[in-house]
Amino acid sequence: MTTLDRPSRRAVLAAAVGAPFALPALTACGAAEASPHRLRLGYFANVTHGVAVAGMARGTFAERLPGVRLETQIFPSGPSAVQAMLAGALDVAYLGPNPAITAWVRTKGQGVRLVAGGASGGAALVARKGIESVEELRGRRVSTPQLGGTQDVALKTLLREKGIATGSGKDAVEVLWMANSQTLDQFKQNRLDASYQAEPWVSRLVEEAGAHVLVDERTRWPGGRFATTCVVVSEDYRRRCPEQVEALLGAHVDTVRWIRAHRDEAATLLNSEIERIAGKKLKPTVIDRAMSSVEFGWDPMLTNIAEVAEHTWATGGIEVKPNLHGIADLAPLNRALAARGLERAADGGYGARGKA
């Protein structure tokens, strides 16, 4: 458990169902031509990463990537997934926008590309009974899953807007970084006052620990939509295996459409997979509540992500004022969408050929 006073920007960085269609023939890529290629895919056992969870469980990813060996890694947070990707141990990751932004800035635009959105919504600041406003968090303990993660930046941005410092003392908020399961235990023991979380942990804290939603993040963005999950690929994989990236994104789109058309079945599937991965099934009230707050999709929401990048910089998450020009490559996604008769995704001026 680590307490946040005011870390340097450098310290933060260091921590950091559709119509039928023809499947393209996938060719071997790069140095993997002598053997079947593998795709190393990372995601979380979270409802907000439901597209990856369901896509793997239903076999959609494997079906759309014939001849490709899929290897999955489950991560506890975005910064840890980014570390694996930048170390060359991961090809594709579902993660929050802040780790993606940090990876882009750290590598000066050479390490990763954002290729699709994954989910909107499903994040909130929850507090224990008796705390009815953000101002009442002064002098109290608040957790986030990890330093530099999406919820960590969201919390710091909220506190900054309210003029509340982070650190020790009666007028500041003591921010702690801890595993989600530890946060739940701390709430049950009345040793933690609030936490900024993504689903299903928002609902678990409400349903199992008596917390209540203090700030639903949907209330902080126009139209209630903001990027919770995005799909990021390593630049090396994107260049070597463009057909596989497109096929994966086609599977992503197909899985989103299936979830939207089969919400109850999808909730049951996600719950079973969370139990398989994490060892414990969610209560029906928890999975139902969590699913109701998440919108699954492929919209990258790049204008929103650009604003999030400004928040990341303002709260110390990146050392330089961000320039996201070129962060996105939506060409593979738009080809997959066109093959399904769907409208193309807009890059908001942040695509490879867009305007910064």
Automatic annotation (TrEMBL):
This is ABC transporter substrate-binding protein. It comes from Dermacoccus abyssi. InterPro entries: ABC_SsuA_sub-bd, NrtA/CpmA_ABC-bd_dom, TAT_signal. It is found in: Cell inner membrane; Periplasm. Belongs to the bacterial solute-binding protein SsuA/TauA family. It comes from the Bacteria. Coiled coil: none annotated. Keywords: Cell inner membrane, Cell membrane, Membrane, Signal, Transport. SUPFAM superfamilies: Periplasmic binding protein-like II. Residues 1-27 form the signal peptide. It holds the Pfam family NMT1_2.
